[in-house]
Amino acid sequence: MTSFASVHAFEAALADLRGPDADAAADARVRQAELTKPAGSLGRLEDLAIFFAGWQGRARPQIDRARAAIFAGNHGVTVHGVSAFPPSVTAQMVANFASGGAAINALSGAAGLDLTVVALDLDRPTADFTVDAAMSEAECLDALNRGAAVVDADLALIVLGEMGIGNSTAAAALCARSLGGDASEWVGPGTGVDGHGVARKTAVVDRAIAFHADAPRSAFETLRRVGGREIAAIAGAILRARQLGVPVLLDGFICTSAIAPLAADNAAITAHCIAGHCSAEPGHKRLLDLLGLQPILALGMRLGEGSGAAVAANIIRSALAVHDRMATFAEAEVSASL
Ligand SMILES: Cc1cc2ncn([C@H]3O[C@H](COP(=O)(O)O)[C@@H](O)[C@H]3O)c2cc1C
Ligand SMILES: O=C(O)c1cccnc1
Fold first, then answer.
1. Is the distance from the beta carbon of residue 78 to the nearest atom of ligand 1 less than 6 Å?
2. What pLDDT sits at residue 1?
3. Which SUPFAM superfamilies match (predicted)?
């Protein structure tokens, strides 16, 4: 099924976002106050349970089915030497995902997530976005729809991740074009390029921003011009998840960059999204701050693949477990106050 039949349909969906069930969230807040603990003592775990109650429309939310979806794409911008690894590693890592040997295989298993990997036309890298749009309209729309297709209505949670050599440069360009700021504020080492590499990446992002300066600033045009297939797929999955009321757990800098153009068009898009972690990639903290997202974890991870978000999914499971299983003061006959 095609979620977004046209660019117009995608834009209309982004303009018309529904919110959570405020009554269910309020009921969950009441339940938190009745559980056998001092008010607020479970901190962020309480907020997470209330968040899920709102999106599931019930005071005691559960996680039955949860999925990690990883999108892979190749990038024409790698001709400028912006990564510490060759583009061939993208397809090699997709093979590694298939045989179960990557970090996300272990981490999604540990978090009870099924794993879907979508390789997006790896033999057709995007165009070099310093001199062209990365994708045609049709290519970008296709990537958005392939992302949307992984979101099933019965998922309690979707973890999003990416694999694409060169994509930390695309992510920096997306952030700079969507949210402003100098390229140098968004560019970092990615897979581990040295200072010269970071300077090269910064120059590439500067050139890209200048090349596309006069083009429309819509989410679609920004994704199409300076994004990549896997990043557009993540954007499509985020928007489709919102249509279906499925909470999204975002991963690192690159994954989170997919929401930047959407948020520039409609800031409400972040309301069903949780930041799983704060990556060591320097632009990520800035991006999360501008989006108003507070990460669950900060473990110094800088991998991508949905890895940090998958670790954070365990925290969400813990939050829903205490919310559902604890006794109330009345049930346990514990004094609720002096
Ligand atoms: C073996 C390997 C596994 C990875 N898994 C995720 N990434 C991460 O690194 C890439 C982004 O960094 P850059 O822009 O510097 O290329 C993305 O593929 C990202 O997911 C990996 C990178 C490598 C080398
Ligand atoms: O934060 C990320 O998403 C990230 C950082 C470095 C390399 N790959 C991914």
1. no
2. 73
3. Nicotinate mononucleotide:5,6-dimethylbenzimidazole phosphoribosyltransferase (CobT) (SSF52733)
Minimum-distance ligand 1 atom for the alpha carbon of 304: 20
What is the CATH topology of the domain spanning 64-316? Answer: Rossmann fold (3.40.50)
In terms of residues, how long is the chain?
338
Radius of gyration of the chain (CA): 20
DSSP 148-171: HTT--TT-SEEEEEEE-TTHHHHH
Cα of 282 vs centre of ligand 2, distance in Å, is 10
**Backbone dihedral region of 111: left (phi > 0), alpha (psi from -120 to 50 degrees) or beta?**
alpha
So which residues are the catalytic ones? 305
ipTM of the complex: 0.99
Question: Is there an atom of ligand 1 within 6 Å of 281 CB?
Answer: no
In short, whether 191's Cβ falls inside 6 Å of ligand 2 is: yes
Q: How far is CA 181 from CA 84, 186, 223, 286, 297, in A?
A: 25, 8, 18, 10, 25
Mean pLDDT of 87-105: 99
Nearest CA to ligand 1 atom 22: 191
What's the pLDDT tens digit per position in 281-309?
A: 999 999 999 999 999 999 999 999 999 99
Output the average pLDDT for the chain: 98
Q: What is the pLDDT of residue 150?
A: 98
Of the pLDDT bands very low, low, confident and very high (cuts 50, 70, 90), residue 134 is very high
Residue for token digits 């925290």? 315
308 CB less than 6 Å from ligand 1?
A: no
CA of 326 to the centre of ligand 1 (A): 41
